[in-house]
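SECTION: protein entry
WANTED: fold as tokens:
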Amino acid sequence: MQRMIKFELKRSFKNRLFLISLLISLALVTWYSIERIPYCVQLNSEFLNDENLMGFFEISYTNWIGSHNIYLQQNIFYMAIPILATLPFGSSFYDDINRGYARNVCVRAKKKYYLVAKYIAVFVSGGCVVAIPMVLSFLISSIFLPTMLPEHLIHLLTYILRISGLIYFMCNRYYIHRYIFLSHFCFRE
């Protein structure tokens, strides 16, 4: 069972569709970062020099690709998540059946083990295609923007509107344990 899982994971991560999906996700993150981060740095410098009295301090928690869906890149990313997550290894089961690979594996091992290994590989590869760019986006915004305690009213509405179910009770945790909240948010998507 473990050998089968390792083999399926290796197949999923060495797949060229995984690389294509990851590159598309990273391109969206790069586009967002190039367009948004310099503007936020400029707003922060204006705020610190008292040139922008009506604004607020831009921080990394509210300016990564997963923070809200106001900007074009964020909307594209959220709309493309289902496609990007299934593209890497989603069609492999169909290919395995058509090529006779699944029948060959099921002769040597139980069908249940093969399906569980396939499920785990599809889940992990799709999750990595979505989570890696989100984590990278947060790291990029943390490099250029300050990581400080968020103001209670800034962007809270966008979190409350987007968050449903299990994460809704974690809204208060956003201001106490921000990294736990963000990691849970990244891997939930």
